[in-house]
Structures are given as structure tokens and as C-alpha cells.
Amino acid sequence: MTPGLVFTLTLALFFGIDYYVYQSVKRAYTNVWVRRIYWLICIVGYLYMLTSFLGFDRANESRKVVNGFATLIMIWYVPKFLIIAILLLEDFTRLLFGLYRRVAKPEVKELGESFVPGRRKFVQNVALGLASIPFLGVLHGIWKGKYNYRVIKETLFYDDLPEAFDGFTILQISDIHTGSFDDKEKIQYGVDLIKAQKADLILFTGDMVNNQSSECIPWLDVFKGIEAPHGQFCVLGNHDYGDYMTWDSEADKAADVEALVRMESEIGFRNLRNENVKIEKDGQSIDLVGVENWGLRFKQRGDLDLAMKDLEKDSFKILMSHDPTHFDEVVIHHEKKVHLTLSGHTHGWQFGIEIPGFVKWSPSSFAYPKWAGLYQEKGRKLYVNRGFGYLAFPGRVGIWPEITLLELRRKA
Question: Which residues form the Calcineurin-like phosphoesterase domain (predicted)?
Fold first, then answer.
């Protein structure tokens, strides 16, 4: 489909949503000005979509356009999805009740005629009231949530962990997205929290930028000084290759990737690009492997065979691979066992509900079965970090920015 057709269909979808919800607004509020203000907000949104579509230029950084569009959807339309879900359920119930009335006795028909309109108004008021919850949640996510850093600690047990690494700690961060940042003081707080963990090894699993390496420059001083006794390593994520911009040439695009790798080196991180390095302690070692980005929906630059070509089959291995789909599609099937894979990428879509021990849900689960936290399959573990930064929607609702601290323990 052409971009124009996609835009037209998107606009038609949003208008349909607005019109359906308006039926509830119209019944709940008799004041004509409430109705006019409702449509005024809708029209302003349509005009913003139109001007964004006409003015969008992939050759330049369009962060404000993307952020604005994502914010519009999260603030104005996510609450409406809740309203629609409730009203559709009520409409379906009303349909069943209507079918029943067709064959019911006269007194039941009279009851239905008096009962249904009152119930409809009650349901509409409930739906409008409940919609305020995600609305306020989105506002909080923009104002506070995107900097609500959490340190999540996990202890991982292995039979074949070298004894010298019993109690070894690994700090993982992912998806920094410097191109989205807008508050140096808050980011510095997050970096200080990383330093305070005093991990033995620090690993960053990709997506330093949104589109291009220059986004890093204002933040280099903030990220300098992140150090660990056994080093700092990183890999590239899908956003680090410049694939979301239009470049004058492939050479310029490739040069920008190399510039990013140099900047990461400048702040103390060694980039592993389909290669490995030994982490040594007290005469023993584990293998740290890093691959370029490999994902089902993206160009598959990662080469696990190349990255592990000189490693022993049974050595203890930790893999950095940005996209968690790599784990299911390649890692768990490889002849050389990877004990622990560290990924990011999903951000948990920056929206969801997590109550430890009770609820863990995000719409990202529809696209990524393994979207956040710890997973285990075929004797191999995967940890998916929820991300340090944010992308597109300038906030986080329920899925907070994460700093992961993993402790390796040897089973007795």
C-alpha cells in the first residue's frame, strides 16, 4: 500500500473510534459545549496527523513528530480502547437480550424496554470513568514513569559454573536510546544507580541511539565512568545501524555505525561484533560472546557460528544478543551450549501491568513470547531487559526502566 492510502485508512480508523465513543459522550453530557470541545480536540488531532504526514522526512531526525504522534495515541486513544471494549460487551449483551425479548412473554418485553436504556447509560458512565485511569497513567508515564529506574536482581544457578565465578555479578542495561532523552539530571541519576551496584561485569545489549550516532554526543560525559573490575562490553541493536534514516550513500551509513562504535569505546565499552572474549578470574574463565543484531523482523546480521567458532563445546558461555527472538530461533538449537543469553529490544512496549507474583502483562507479549524477565528452555536461560530509555512514546506506563543485576551461583 502507498503511504497516502495507509494514512487515509489510519485516519478513517481514528475517526470511527472517535465517533463511536462520541455516542457515549453525547448521552452522558447534555451540555453542547462538552460535545463541541470533544470534536475540537479530535479535529486538532487529525490536523496534527495530516501536518506530520506531509512534513515527515526520513532523511532528518523527526523525533518530535514521532513522539507527538505516539503521545496523541497514548493519551487520546488508549483510554478510548477501554471505553470501546466495555461498550462492545454491553452491545453484545443487549443484542442477546433483544433476541430473547422476541420470544419472551409480554411482561418481559415491557421490563426490557424500561431496563435497557437505564442500564446503557450506567454502563456508559462507568466506561467513561474507567477511561480516566489509563489517561492519568499515561500522563504519569510521561512526567515521571520514564525515569522511574528499577534495579531488578536475579540469582541464577548452574551445575557447571566454574568455582571462581560462584557469586560473580553481572549488570545488564539495554536500549538506552540517547536520541530520546530530555533531562540530563534524571539520566545522571540512572547512571549513578548503575555505578552504585558495583557489579563485577557490565554488559549493554544494544540500541544506544534511535537513528544516528550524533545523538550520543550530548550524553557521552554522563555515561563515562561506568566501570567494572572485569570490564564493560556491548553489542549493536537494530537502531544502531541507521536503518531508520535515508542516507546519501551506503558508505555514509556504514561510517555512522563505525562512529557509534568509537563513541561507545570512548565511554569505556568494547563492542563485540560476532566475536568473543574470555573473562578470567582466579585462573578460571568463562566465555563472553557478542553478536550483531539478529531478529525475525530485521536484517539478520548476527552470526553465532562465527562468534563461537574457536570456543569449546562445553565451556561456560554468556551471549549478548539484542533481540530475544534470536534465542528461540537459533541459540537453543546450537550445538555449542550457551548457558545465559542477555537481550533487550522489546521495552515491554513501555506499557503494561506488572505485579510480582500476580500479574505480568504487556501488549508486547503478542509480538514477543519472551518479552521481559527470565526464561528457561532446553537447559538454557534467557534474560530480557525492559530497557533503560524509551522510544517514540516519551513515557513508560507500568513497565519501568530497568537495571538488571544478575548473580551467578554454582549449585552445591
Answer: 169-347
* Mean pLDDT, residues 184-206: 98
Give the phi and the psi of residue 364 in degrees, each rounded to 5.
-65, -20
Does pTM top 0.90 for this prediction? no
Cα distance between residue 313 and residue 315, in whole Å: 6
- Say which residue the cell 522510544 belongs to: 391
| Cα distances (Å, whole numbers) of residue 120 to 24, 81, 93 | 9, 18, 10
pLDDT at 139 over 80: yes
CA neighbor of 276 nearest in space, from 268, 287, 286: 287
SS3 category, 349: helix
Q: Which CATH superfamily is domain 149-410 in?
A: Metallo-dependent phosphatases (3.60.21.10)
Residue 387 · residue 66 · CB < 8 Å: no
Taking the C-alpha atoms of residue 222 and residue 287, their distance in angstroms, rounded to an integer, is 29
The span from the CA of 71 to the CA of 143, in Å, is 12
Condensed to tens digits (0 to 9), the pLDDT of residues 226-263 reads 999 999 999 999 999 999 988 999 999 999 999 999 99
Query: Using CA atoms, how far apart are residues 323 and 360, in angstroms rounded to an integer?
Result: 20
Q: What are phi and psi of 131, to 5 degrees?
A: -65, -20
Residues 6+ apart with CB under 8 A from 185: none
Q: Which of 169, 131, 70 is nearest to 409 (CA)?
A: 169
Of 113, 125, 124, the residue nearest 90 (C-alpha): 124
Among 40, 211, 27, 36, residue whose Cα is nearest residue 128: 27
The DSSP secondary structure of 76-113, one letter per residue, reads IIHHHHHHHHHHHHHHHHHHHHHHHHHHS-HHHHHHHH
pLDDT digits (tens, 9 = 90+) for 352-386: 999 988 899 999 999 999 999 999 999 999 999 99
Q: Which three cell numbers stand for residue 312?
A: 569449546
CA angle 312-313-316, nearest 5°?
80
> 150: which residues sit within 8 A by CB, 6+ positions away?
400, 401, 402, 403
Q: How would you classify the pairing of strands 353-355 and 340-343? A: unpaired
Contacts of 246 (CB under 8 A, 6+ apart): 58, 59
In whole angstroms, what is the distance from residue 270 CA to residue 47 CA? Answer: 46
Cβ partners under 8 Å of residue 298, min gap 6: 238, 243, 323
Boundaries of every domain in the chain: 3-143, 149-410
Q: Do the Cβ atoms of 208 and 173 come closer than 8 Å?
A: no
Q: Is a pLDDT exceeding 50 seen at residue 59?
A: no
